[in-house]
Amino acid sequence: MTGNRITYRTADGVRVPGTWRHAFIRNGDYFLTDLFIYADGLIDCWGLVTLEELAEKLRRGWVATELPDGARASAHELAAWRFSEPRTWLTPELLLAEVRDTIDQLNGRPDSTGRCLAAVDVFLADRTEENRAAARAAYLAIPETQRRYALGDMDRKDRPLRVLVAGPGEHLDGTPAGETVTREDYDYAIAYFEERAKWIAERPARVPADGPATPMAPAIHLYQSYSREPSDDPGTKALRNDFPAPVPADGVTYPSVGHAYWALSTTDPDARAAIRDAKTAYAAGNVAAAAPRRDGWEQARTAVMTALLRAKYTRHPALARILLDTHDATLVYDDSDSGFWGDNGGRGRNWTGRLLELVRSELRAEQAGITLPEPGTAEH
Given 3-state DSSP classes, what are the helix, strand and coil percentages for the chain, each rounded to the nearest 5? Predict the structure, then answer.
């Protein structure tokens, strides 16, 4: 199983999402490695191949599902060993079917399990033997290794599904002795699916008590800009740290958050004065770059930025309104000078965007009349 592992590759400047799973490559010896599977249907098994080419590599044993006793194997720069009485769970056909399902999942399409459950819904709505046969065929199309997970019920596994698609008096798939489905078994399976349908129908209306898990508003990209003068209608440019909005720090008022941040990064009084007087936050950063950073700055900088952002939006209600008007959107902040503060095309950590979201939440709490605890001394 691939789980929720996420990766991607870039093709023609476009990110192609993917995932990966463990596999053995047989190139003389057996090498434990990763099989990367991408949404466009290409698979990397020491080289990008199509599904058809993967099927051929499985047939030839390049991607190995059979591990001979005594064969030598290794994991790169980790270990080497020989197989002793190995047992494998996959055949070439099963692995190929699982990869096909993974590609469907990466594209948001129903995989074999989704197609089976859709066929079951058709049968439950119109219980003809033709529809039951279609549901059973769809069940058998699920890779055998994945069938037990089809209902997402780890107590009953897939037994209600197997009973339903078999029908009363018929042999149950997956039992060595060919167990026969009784009427009691079948009635239980019908009741199970009816209850499951009710639960699924109610599920979209269920909202966590404290709100949704993901933002409802579209993400907002705060592109790099270099504001020199205030504006009556700055839009989201007002959320940039270089936007002219005086903030106090350490007894001095600075022209912007950017100025104050760079001033607090050093203890050199001459540098701090020059930073305060710099015409832009960009120029202030250049002044600061020539001065020494204060001890512990790397560990303290997020707390400093948080305090400065709080000061900015507390002192400037019009700017706070702009921040609040972003609702619960993810704020993507560009900073060409810092992969720490900026998102920078997904390559940075976006800490400025994250702290803006924090301050926005605090402003919402204030609007709601929620009193937040103030930092204080520890109790003894």
Answer: 45, 15, 40
